[in-house]
Specification:
Helix content is 72%, strand content 4%. Helix 2 runs antiparallel to helix 3 and helix 3 runs antiparallel to helix 4.
Length: 209
Protein backbone atom coordinates (compact mmCIF):
# COMPACT_ATOMS: atom_id res chain seq x y z
CA UNK A 1 0.00 0.00 0.00
CA UNK A 2 2.74 2.42 0.93
CA UNK A 3 4.50 1.72 -2.37
CA UNK A 4 1.37 2.65 -4.27
CA UNK A 5 1.05 5.89 -2.30
CA UNK A 6 4.73 6.67 -2.82
CA UNK A 7 4.37 5.88 -6.52
CA UNK A 8 1.46 8.32 -6.86
CA UNK A 9 3.36 11.04 -5.00
CA UNK A 10 6.41 10.61 -7.24
CA UNK A 11 4.19 10.45 -10.31
CA UNK A 12 2.53 13.80 -9.66
CA UNK A 13 5.78 15.37 -8.51
CA UNK A 14 7.41 14.37 -11.79
CA UNK A 15 4.38 15.57 -13.75
CA UNK A 16 4.53 18.95 -12.00
CA UNK A 17 8.28 19.12 -12.48
CA UNK A 18 8.00 18.36 -16.19
CA UNK A 19 5.30 20.97 -16.56
CA UNK A 20 7.73 23.50 -15.09
CA UNK A 21 10.43 21.99 -17.29
CA UNK A 22 8.20 22.55 -20.32
CA UNK A 23 7.58 26.17 -19.35
CA UNK A 24 11.30 26.62 -18.67
CA UNK A 25 12.06 25.39 -22.18
CA UNK A 26 9.70 28.00 -23.60
CA UNK A 27 11.41 30.73 -21.55
CA UNK A 28 14.93 29.62 -22.56
CA UNK A 29 13.95 29.38 -26.22
CA UNK A 30 12.19 32.76 -26.22
CA UNK A 31 14.99 34.57 -24.38
CA UNK A 32 17.71 33.05 -26.58
CA UNK A 33 15.90 33.94 -29.80
CA UNK A 34 15.27 37.44 -28.46
CA UNK A 35 18.97 37.90 -27.70
CA UNK A 36 19.95 36.63 -31.14
CA UNK A 37 17.58 38.94 -32.99
CA UNK A 38 18.61 41.90 -30.80
CA UNK A 39 22.32 41.12 -30.54
CA UNK A 40 23.23 44.76 -31.22
CA UNK A 41 21.38 45.86 -28.07
CA UNK A 42 23.23 43.24 -26.02
CA UNK A 43 26.64 44.00 -27.58
CA UNK A 44 26.79 40.43 -28.90
CA UNK A 45 29.84 39.46 -30.94
CA UNK A 46 30.11 36.69 -33.53
CA UNK A 47 32.19 34.62 -31.12
CA UNK A 48 29.23 34.33 -28.72
CA UNK A 49 26.76 33.24 -31.42
CA UNK A 50 27.72 29.51 -31.38
CA UNK A 51 27.01 29.33 -27.65
CA UNK A 52 23.74 31.23 -28.16
CA UNK A 53 22.68 28.93 -31.01
CA UNK A 54 23.41 25.92 -28.84
CA UNK A 55 21.30 27.48 -26.08
CA UNK A 56 18.42 27.86 -28.56
CA UNK A 57 18.69 24.16 -29.39
CA UNK A 58 18.71 23.32 -25.68
CA UNK A 59 15.57 25.40 -25.15
CA UNK A 60 13.77 23.60 -27.98
CA UNK A 61 14.89 20.17 -26.75
CA UNK A 62 13.88 21.10 -23.19
CA UNK A 63 10.41 21.99 -24.42
CA UNK A 64 10.05 18.71 -26.33
CA UNK A 65 11.35 16.46 -23.58
CA UNK A 66 9.33 18.33 -20.97
CA UNK A 67 6.24 17.38 -22.94
CA UNK A 68 7.42 13.76 -23.20
CA UNK A 69 8.08 13.71 -19.46
CA UNK A 70 4.57 14.96 -18.71
CA UNK A 71 3.05 12.27 -20.92
CA UNK A 72 5.29 9.55 -19.48
CA UNK A 73 4.50 10.49 -15.89
CA UNK A 74 0.77 10.87 -16.44
CA UNK A 75 0.39 7.62 -18.40
CA UNK A 76 2.97 5.78 -16.27
CA UNK A 77 4.73 4.75 -19.48
CA UNK A 78 8.23 3.38 -18.86
CA UNK A 79 9.28 3.77 -22.50
CA UNK A 80 8.48 7.49 -22.49
CA UNK A 81 10.19 7.91 -19.12
CA UNK A 82 13.33 6.14 -20.34
CA UNK A 83 13.31 8.28 -23.48
CA UNK A 84 12.90 11.33 -21.27
CA UNK A 85 15.86 10.27 -19.10
CA UNK A 86 18.10 9.69 -22.14
CA UNK A 87 17.10 13.09 -23.47
CA UNK A 88 18.05 14.71 -20.16
CA UNK A 89 21.48 13.08 -20.30
CA UNK A 90 22.02 14.46 -23.81
CA UNK A 91 20.83 17.90 -22.72
CA UNK A 92 23.22 17.87 -19.76
CA UNK A 93 26.10 17.13 -22.13
CA UNK A 94 24.98 19.99 -24.37
CA UNK A 95 24.87 22.34 -21.39
CA UNK A 96 28.40 21.38 -20.43
CA UNK A 97 29.41 22.18 -24.00
CA UNK A 98 27.71 25.58 -23.72
CA UNK A 99 29.59 26.32 -20.52
CA UNK A 100 32.94 25.36 -21.98
CA UNK A 101 32.26 27.21 -25.23
CA UNK A 102 31.09 30.30 -23.37
CA UNK A 103 34.16 30.36 -21.15
CA UNK A 104 36.49 30.07 -24.15
CA UNK A 105 34.73 32.54 -26.44
CA UNK A 106 34.32 35.07 -23.63
CA UNK A 107 38.07 35.70 -23.56
CA UNK A 108 38.37 35.60 -27.35
CA UNK A 109 35.51 38.06 -27.79
CA UNK A 110 37.11 40.51 -25.36
CA UNK A 111 40.44 40.27 -27.18
CA UNK A 112 38.71 40.86 -30.52
CA UNK A 113 37.00 43.99 -29.22
CA UNK A 114 40.29 45.32 -27.92
CA UNK A 115 42.10 44.68 -31.21
CA UNK A 116 39.33 46.13 -33.40
CA UNK A 117 38.76 49.30 -31.38
CA UNK A 118 42.20 49.88 -29.91
CA UNK A 119 42.83 53.02 -31.93
CA UNK A 120 39.43 54.62 -31.30
CA UNK A 121 39.21 53.62 -27.64
CA UNK A 122 42.87 53.92 -26.67
CA UNK A 123 42.23 56.45 -23.86
CA UNK A 124 41.46 54.40 -20.78
CA UNK A 125 40.56 57.29 -18.47
CA UNK A 126 38.87 60.63 -18.97
CA UNK A 127 42.15 62.42 -18.18
CA UNK A 128 43.97 60.56 -20.96
CA UNK A 129 42.22 62.70 -23.57
CA UNK A 130 44.45 65.59 -22.57
CA UNK A 131 41.97 68.41 -23.21
CA UNK A 132 38.30 68.78 -23.98
CA UNK A 133 38.79 69.72 -27.64
CA UNK A 134 39.72 66.16 -28.63
CA UNK A 135 36.97 64.46 -26.64
CA UNK A 136 34.21 63.23 -29.00
CA UNK A 137 30.65 64.42 -28.45
CA UNK A 138 29.57 60.85 -27.70
CA UNK A 139 31.42 61.18 -24.38
CA UNK A 140 29.28 64.12 -23.24
CA UNK A 141 27.57 63.31 -19.96
CA UNK A 142 23.85 63.89 -20.49
CA UNK A 143 22.72 62.07 -17.35
CA UNK A 144 24.07 63.93 -14.32
CA UNK A 145 23.03 61.12 -12.00
CA UNK A 146 25.75 58.92 -13.49
CA UNK A 147 29.52 59.22 -13.02
CA UNK A 148 30.55 62.46 -14.70
CA UNK A 149 33.80 64.38 -14.58
CA UNK A 150 34.55 67.98 -15.56
CA UNK A 151 37.29 68.49 -18.16
CA UNK A 152 37.89 72.05 -19.40
CA UNK A 153 34.35 73.05 -18.36
CA UNK A 154 32.85 70.07 -20.17
CA UNK A 155 31.05 67.26 -18.39
CA UNK A 156 32.12 63.89 -19.80
CA UNK A 157 31.67 60.31 -18.69
CA UNK A 158 34.38 59.13 -16.35
CA UNK A 159 33.90 55.51 -17.43
CA UNK A 160 35.86 54.83 -20.64
CA UNK A 161 34.13 53.32 -23.65
CA UNK A 162 36.23 50.18 -23.61
CA UNK A 163 35.41 49.50 -19.97
CA UNK A 164 31.70 50.05 -20.67
CA UNK A 165 31.74 47.65 -23.65
CA UNK A 166 33.62 44.99 -21.71
CA UNK A 167 31.15 45.35 -18.83
CA UNK A 168 28.26 44.77 -21.23
CA UNK A 169 30.03 41.75 -22.66
CA UNK A 170 30.49 40.32 -19.18
CA UNK A 171 26.79 40.85 -18.39
CA UNK A 172 25.71 39.04 -21.55
CA UNK A 173 28.09 36.16 -20.86
CA UNK A 174 26.91 35.95 -17.24
CA UNK A 175 23.28 35.84 -18.42
CA UNK A 176 24.02 32.93 -20.75
CA UNK A 177 25.99 31.08 -18.09
CA UNK A 178 23.25 31.71 -15.52
CA UNK A 179 20.60 30.25 -17.82
CA UNK A 180 22.80 27.23 -18.52
CA UNK A 181 23.49 26.70 -14.79
CA UNK A 182 19.81 26.96 -13.85
CA UNK A 183 18.86 24.57 -16.64
CA UNK A 184 21.51 22.14 -15.44
CA UNK A 185 19.98 22.03 -11.96
CA UNK A 186 16.54 21.36 -13.44
CA UNK A 187 17.95 18.61 -15.66
CA UNK A 188 19.66 16.83 -12.76
CA UNK A 189 16.46 16.98 -10.68
CA UNK A 190 14.50 15.64 -13.63
CA UNK A 191 16.95 12.75 -14.02
CA UNK A 192 16.55 11.82 -10.35
CA UNK A 193 12.73 11.97 -10.45
CA UNK A 194 12.53 10.01 -13.70
CA UNK A 195 14.84 7.25 -12.41
CA UNK A 196 12.78 6.89 -9.24
CA UNK A 197 9.54 6.72 -11.22
CA UNK A 198 11.00 4.22 -13.72
CA UNK A 199 12.00 1.95 -10.83
CA UNK A 200 8.59 2.44 -9.21
CA UNK A 201 6.87 1.44 -12.45
CA UNK A 202 9.06 -1.65 -12.63
CA UNK A 203 8.27 -2.77 -9.07
CA UNK A 204 4.57 -2.01 -9.45
CA UNK A 205 4.41 -4.09 -12.64
CA UNK A 206 6.11 -7.00 -10.85
CA UNK A 207 3.66 -6.80 -7.95
CA UNK A 208 0.77 -6.83 -10.40
CA UNK A 209 1.95 -10.13 -11.79
Amino acid sequence: MWRVCMFNVIKYLLFTFNLLFFVGGIIILSFSIHMKHNKADYQMTDELLPALNLLIIIGAVTLIFGFLGCCGAFRENRCLLILFFVGLVLMLCMLLAVGALGAITRTEATQELVMEHMEQLLPLRYLDWGNATVVPDSCNCTDTSRNCMVLDEREIYSTPCMTYIMTWLDKVSDSLMGIAFGSGILIILGMIFSLVLINSCFFCSKETF
